[in-house]
Amino acid sequence: MIKTEKISISRTARSRIKDIDFHNLEFGKYISDHMLTSEYKNGEWSVPVILPYGDIVFSPTILALHYGQMVFEGMKAFKMEDGKISLFRKDKHYARFSKSLERMCMSQVPYEIFSDGLIELVKVDANWVPDTPGAALYIRPFSFASEERFGVKVSDEYRFIIFSGPVGPYYSKALKVRVEDKYIRAAPGGTGFAKCGGNYGAAFYPLQLAKKAGFDQVLWTDGSPDLYIEESGTMNVMFVIDGAIVTPPLSDSILDGVTRDSILTLAKDSGIKVEERRISAKELADSIQKGKLTEAFGTGTAAVVAPIQLINIKGKDYTLPPIAENVVMTKIKNELEAIRTGTAPDKYGWNTII
């Protein structure tokens, strides 16, 4: 077992933190001072090293560049009301990371390296955790095939890295989305449930087409004639119909969102009815027209909860009630934020206090 006291730490000679405006955090722009790295060779992982954030050097022939063996996670640390730092649902993220690694036929990263390394890295960069409302330290663990070969094969070598950066809200406004009826994000038996880079790269083209048409995101479907909804952009998606939260059930083409799971848990415990079932584009349109569908929102680590104002289905715009009337979404979002920032009891044990 690798313990945190064995992790070698080389601190930066000059912190960049004074260059950051913590009251104007653009998502994905700023990187904290340090990163953690570990290498898998000869059947074992090296003791992690924390060092100043910087470029990495690798050969043009590493297998990840050619055959796509790479997976990542996205998680957050928060400044709590009492000044302490919390990592939100660390073990749930590790479980999903491990499942993704398995699907991509990659070496499992030991829990001790992931967990202990993560905690130690956040301790080293604790000053980078913002305390402004709606902000957090976004943390990106990822692993990729690093063996230098250009033949098609499963890599025998991997590299695991964690870096982080302070972020503000992912979306600044309510979203206009289009039901995608030509391209699909994933298919049964594929990698849709895994957090691997290829899933995101393949989604860029249809997303750009939607943006050129004036939309912020797409609603992915299963590609069947009935267009059953699966996800919204890079988020899970939920609809409030007749007061109940309706969301597509998990499958091998839908990501097991940590925020999704948290929202559904809070909703059930709050007495809100939850239906995990298939929902077609036609049902969406009918429910909006009849006034039964009153709220729609995406959920994810980056976006947290992103309200949807308009849904375009087969070329027709369907406008939802004003976001200010989103009672269910607002209630659950506030409950989630209260737990993550320590203003409400963490009865689920979701926070790891650092």
What does this structure look like?
- This protein has 354 residues and is an alpha+beta fold.
- It folds into two domains: 4-169, Aminotransferase class 4, branched-chain amino acid transferase, N-terminal domain (D-amino Acid Aminotransferase, Chain A, domain 1, 2-Layer Sandwich), CATH 3.30.470.10; 175-340, Alpha-Beta Barrel (D-amino Acid Aminotransferase, Chain A, domain 2).
- The chain contains eight helices and 19 strands.
- It has helices spanning 63-67, 90-103, 111-124, 197-201, 204-212, 258-269, 281-289, 327-340; strands at residues 8-9, 34-41, 44-45, 49-52, 70-72, 75-79, 85-88, 136-145, 158-167, 175-179, 217-221, 229-232, 236-241, 244-247, 274-276, 293-300, 304-313, 316-319, 351-353.
- Strands 1, 2, 3, 4, 5, 6, 7, 8, 9 and 19 form a ten-stranded mixed β-sheet that branches. Strands 10, 11, 12, 13, 14, 15, 16, 17 and 18 form a nine-stranded mixed β-sheet that branches.
- Strand 14 (244-247), helix 6 (258-269) and strand 15 (274-276) form a beta-alpha-beta unit.
- The protein is globular and about 60 Å long.
- The model has no long low-confidence stretch (mean pLDDT 96).
List the helices and strands and how they pair.
Elements: E1 8-9, E2 34-41, E3 44-45, E4 49-52, H1 63-67, E5 70-72, E6 75-79, E7 85-88, H2 90-103, H3 111-124, E8 136-145, E9 158-167, E10 175-179, H4 197-201, H5 204-212, E11 217-221, E12 229-232, E13 236-241, E14 244-247, H6 258-269, E15 274-276, H7 281-289, E16 293-300, E17 304-313, E18 316-319, H8 327-340, E19 351-353
Parallel strand pairs: 1-4, 10-11, 10-17, 14-15
Antiparallel strand pairs: 2-3, 2-4, 2-9, 5-8, 6-7, 6-8, 7-19, 8-9, 11-12, 13-14, 13-16, 16-17, 17-18
Helix pairs in contact: 6-8
